[in-house]
Inverse folding.
């Protein structure tokens, strides 16, 4: 057994394989394992696959209860920034400060459970002192303080991870131009909420379609998103753009309003 593990490490893990994610890596390793079953060991007349089938009849059945693969940490407390410290890192959770939670630590992910429900799930970080923050966990807070969203750490992490494409910034900027910063940001948060529930790919496609025909209204984007037929979405978007064009007005310039406060000179 130890000799076979050494062979597998030298032949399948050297050099270190590269993969886009853990699932892709597991697929690579499975393919190499299946290819290895065709190999014939020195001094044997049959390949590994045939020998395995012959030995299987003499093996005991697997036990019903396996060894636990996860580590459970309890109690943990949500801090004032909506984070839970697990091992040496902080992970966000959409829970009130002071809530006592349980962390289930797997090899590749961490589940934060509250009241027997999974409140948050993160990819595990093996560094030290890092913050792993999900923007979706802070939407309630940001809706009350929309000015904090633009420079928030969760949004910056999404940008770095490629989860915030340029089209979202474009429509966000146009929402702010039409509605003002606070109201425009709240409209953007509405879109983010919908994307987290209905799927980000659908939201991004609807935003790109809206921008393409010049629609900068959150309600219109959501309506486009909920229309399943692409041709129907395009016809609706064009008609809506023509209808809304008559209501488009620039934000008023209030710079000279202060002159009235000083009275008539």
């Amino acid at each position: 057994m130890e000799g076979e593990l050494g062979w597998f490490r030298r032949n399948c893990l050297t050099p270190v394989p590269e993969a886009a994610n853990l699932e892709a890596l597991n697929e690579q390793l499975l393919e190499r394992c299946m290819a290895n079953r065709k190999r014939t060991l020195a001094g044997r007349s049959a390949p590994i696959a045939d020998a395995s089938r012959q030995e299987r009849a003499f093996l005991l059945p697997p036990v019903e209860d396996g060894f636990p693969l996860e580590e459970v940490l309890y109690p943990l407390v949500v801090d004032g920034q909506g984070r839970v410290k697990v091992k040496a890192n902080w992970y966000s959770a959409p829970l009130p400060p002071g809530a006592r939670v349980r962390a289930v630590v797997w090899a590749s992910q961490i589940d934060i459970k509250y009241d027997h429900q999974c409140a948050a799930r993160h990819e595990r970080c093996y560094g030290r002192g890092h913050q792993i923050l999900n923007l979706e966990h802070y939407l309630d807070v940001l809706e009350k303080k929309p000015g904090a969203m633009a420079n928030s750490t969760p949004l910056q992490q999404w940008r770095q991870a490629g989860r915030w494409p340029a089209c979202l910034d474009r429509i966000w900027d146009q929402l702010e131009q039409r509605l003002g910063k606070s109201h425009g940001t709240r409209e953007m948060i509405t879109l983010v909420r919908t994307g987290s529930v209905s799927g980000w790919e659908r939201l991004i496609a609807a935003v790109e379609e809206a921008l393409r025909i010049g629609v900068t209204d959150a309600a219109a984007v959501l309506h486009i998103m909920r229309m399943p037929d692409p041709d129907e979405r395009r016809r609706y978007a064009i008609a809506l753009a023509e209808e809304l064009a008559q209501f488009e007005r620039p934000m008023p310039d209030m710079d000279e309003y202060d002159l009235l406060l000083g009275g008539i000179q």
